Each structure stands twice: as C-alpha cells, then as structure tokens.
Amino acid sequence: MKWLFSRQLQEDSLFFRLVIQEEPFSVQSETTRIRDFSDKIGGIVTFLGVVRDFNEGNDVQGLFLEHYPGMTEKQIEEIARAAGDRWNVLGITIIHRIGNLSPNDEIVFVGVGSAHRGEAFLACEYIMDYLKTNAAFWKKEESVHGSRWLVTRENDLKAANRWISGSVSSDNEVDN
To answer: Which pTM does this prediction carry?
Structure first.
C-alpha cells in the first residue's frame, strides 16, 4: 500500500498536501513538487525526521508508529492552515509514515514554499513543533530492554508553547 491517506487542498493562494503512509518517500521528488506549486515560490524549507538509533540511554532497534485515522488528518490540516494564516506561504507538504520503522528510516517530511525564506523557515518550524505535540501519533520504541510507548517530552511542549507566548514573532525575528 503506497499510502493510507492522501489529500491535496487548494485554498486561496495556499496549496496543501498531506500524506500518511507506510512506504518510504523521496525527499527530492517532494521538494520538486513544492517548487512546482507556484512560480512565485522563491524559497523552500524542508525538514526530514529520521529514526534515531539511541534514545534516553537505550539502543533503539525499531519504532512502531500508529495514528488515529480521521482525527490525525484533521489535526494536521488545522496545523497547516494555522501556519498558512500566520505566514505568507504558498505551499505546504506534510508526509508522515506509520508502521514499523528501523533506525535511520525517514519518519516525517515537512516542506514549505514561500516567496521569501524567512516565512518558510518559521512556518516549517511551527508545523514541526505542533506535529510533535498536537497530532494524534503514538510511538512505541523497541530496544534490547523491551518496548515502551513514548510520551511527549517537556522540551517539545515548550517549543510549541513559545508560538503562543510570543517568544517567536510572526515578523521573521526570534525574540530572546
């Protein structure tokens, strides 16, 4: 099965593509697809998340990801819309894998295209911060010591909350 969920939306001047799938994806193909969203795109920022082989003192042998069909997609669409409302971005692609993954496998791709790099960087970071905390994904880590379900880390919650608290502004400047 290539994907379990795939949706493309065109709203006003924002093109949004979301895919949840078990199969690997091509970063180059996805980046090219974002570039092709609009001739007005002058910068593309991408984030690629991969399975680490070490986490919190454990050698990681694998990672199992589950999602809540329907709810997860809705939450991700809301995150992307919020980024589109906050910054002048032209295209967003989010691909998230589920199922059994091994160390160094790609988990998530977020790509944001905009006329200028600053807005693309901020929107991409915002999307990742909220994917980590507000999208219904569950991760079970496998190690030589057994398996355990991972919980949201305090640092991830702080990263997401800084967008609310104003420690990152919408005018492309990071406040210290």
So the answer is: 0.87
Contact 106, 48 (CB under 8 A): yes
pLDDT digits 0-9 by tens, 18-49: 999 999 999 999 999 999 999 999 999 999 99
The alpha carbon of residue 118 and the mean position of all alpha carbons in its chain are separated, in whole angstroms, by: 18
Each domain of the chain, given as residue ranges in start order, spans 5-165
**Alpha-carbon distances, residue 162 vs 121, 137, 168 (angstroms):** 15, 22, 6
Instruction: Determine the pLDDT at residue 94.
Output: 98
Query: Looking at the predicted structure, is the pLDDT value of residue 174 above 50?
Result: no
Which tokens in the block code for residue 125? 């970071």
| Under 8 Å between Cβ of 129 and 160 | yes
CA distance 9 to 91: 10
- The class of domain 5-165 in CATH terms is alpha beta
Backbone angles phi, psi at 61, to 5 degrees: -100, -20
Judged against a pLDDT cut of 80, whether residue 78 lies above it is answered with: yes
- State the Cα–Cα distance between residues 6 and 19, nearest whole angstrom: 4
Check: CB of residue 88 under 8 Å from CB of residue 121: no
